[in-house]
Specification:
alpha+beta, NE0471 N-terminal domain-like, 3-stranded antiparallel β-sheet, 6 strands, globular
């Protein structure tokens, strides 16, 4: 079964509340992932809060940064 993000919302700090189409949901602190040329700009909270779900069910930002749904799903499922 594909792991597709249904909804994402910033929750303050650098946490995201993520809901998958199969009902799995939870909060994930992504602050430790905000490094490198694509993710470091997301330390600006004005950009970070522009997070959205693209047509493929991935978590994305307008600057081209994205997080793979499979990895997010596995992290939340283990929590």
């Amino acid at each position: 079964m594909d792991k597709i993000v249904k909804r994402v919302q910033p929750c303050g700090g650098f946490e995201l509340e993520i809901e998958f189409t199969d009902g799995l949901c939870g909060r994930l602190d992504v602050s430790q992932r905000l490094f490198g040329p694509v993710f470091e700009p997301l330390r600006d909270y004005n950009l970070f809060e522009q997070v959205y779900v693209d047509q493929f069910g991935a978590v994305c930002w307008p600057n081209g940064a994205d997080l793979a749904p499979d990895a997010l799903y596995d992290t939340l499922a283990k929590a």
